[in-house]
Design goal:
The protein has helices spanning 7-18, 26-37, 44-56, 100-114, 130-135, and strands spanning 60-65, 70-75, 86-89, 95-97, 124-127. It has a three-stranded mixed sheet with strand order 4-3-5, with no helix packed on it. It has a two-stranded antiparallel sheet with strand order 1-2. Helix content is 43%, strand content 17%. It has five helices and five strands, in the order H-H-H-E-E-E-E-H-E-H. The longest helix is centred in the last third of the chain and has 15 residues, at 100-114. The N and C termini lie far apart (47 Å). The protein is of the alpha+beta class and 136 residues long.
């Protein structure tokens, strides 16, 4: 499938890139787009289509929020994101890029004990960051 760079896709990517620590629902993204671009903001169906494309391209990750069926989306625009694991805080939503050598060591350990191949580009470990653990 060809990758097209449209003005609407750029608008959405800008919102996500400028707020890379945040994960947004579709409704929240639409709200942010309308706040910034007003009537020029893409509509709901366009946002759904664009976010699906960004997920397929590996530029955005889709996460389940809480125990429900609600999804949130967060940009994954770091260089080499396919070569390390990601840690997602369930408290504040922060996404942490695990050091490449630590990722590699963990993946090797998992593969050696389970004969299971880990897809680093698709792997996010959920837990609590140091700041959220301190609050408790």
């Amino acid at each position: 499938m060809a990758v097209y760079s449209t003005e609407q896709k750029r608008m959405l990517s800008d919102i996500l890139s400028e707020n890379r620590e945040n994960a947004y629902s579709i409704e929240e993204l639409i709200g942010e787009l309308r706040k910034r671009y007003g009537e020029d903001a893409p509509g709901q169906s366009t946002v759904y289509r664009l976010i699906t494309r960004l997920v397929e391209e590996g530029k955005v990750k889709r996460f389940v929020k809480g125990n429900g069926r609600r999804f949130v989306y967060q940009i994954m625009d770091c260089h080499g994101c396919g070569s390390h694991l990601h840690l997602k805080c369930i408290g504040c939503g922060r996404l942490i890029h695990l050091d490449g050598s630590a990722s590699s060591e963990l993946v090797k350990k998992i593969e050696s004990i389970s004969n299971f191949s880990v897809m680093e580009t698709q792997t996010v470990l959920f837990g609590e960051c140091a700041d959220c653990k301190e609050i408790k």
